[in-house]
Amino acid sequence: MSFWRVAADGVRLAVKVTPKSRRPGVGGTAPAADGPRLRVGVTEAPENGRANDAVCVAVARALNVPASAVRLVAGATSREKTLHVAGDPGVLASRLNML
To answer: Could you tell me which residues come within 8 angstroms of residue 59 by beta carbon, excluding any fewer than 6 positions away?
Structure first.
């Protein structure tokens, strides 16, 4: 089982966010009850959606897509989130496999 799956117009990612992280960035996986999740660390605090915005930007940079291509689907107030990344699923899959 993987932390991502193909969607109609892109991919869905299951992520685990570490806000106020000393080591910001994307990489590695974290176990969860529903399967592995991609680890994403951001320096922003989880206030007023700042950490959510930072997660979208970090994932966009890691996948080399515009920030507007990444949006939060579920988990706005949780550390475990679901993101949607718009784009060609084949290209995104190859980039995700390199993380």
So the answer is: 13, 15, 26, 38, 40, 70, 83, 85
Q: How far apart are CA 44 and CA 97, in angstroms?
A: 26
pLDDT digits (tens, 9 = 90+) for 22-47: 989 998 999 999 999 999 999 999 99
Beta strands 25-30 and 10-18: pairing type? unpaired
Percentage with pLDDT > 90 across the chain: 89
Beta bridge partners of 57: none
Rounded distance between C-alpha atoms, residue 93 and residue 24, angstroms: 22
Owner of token pair 């995104």: 92
Please report the DSSP string for 9-62 in residue order.
TEEEEEEEEETT-SS-EEEEEE--TTS-EEEEE-SS-SSTTHHHHHHHHHHHHH
- Whole-model pTM: value is 0.93
- Cβ-contact 42, 17 below 8 angstroms: yes
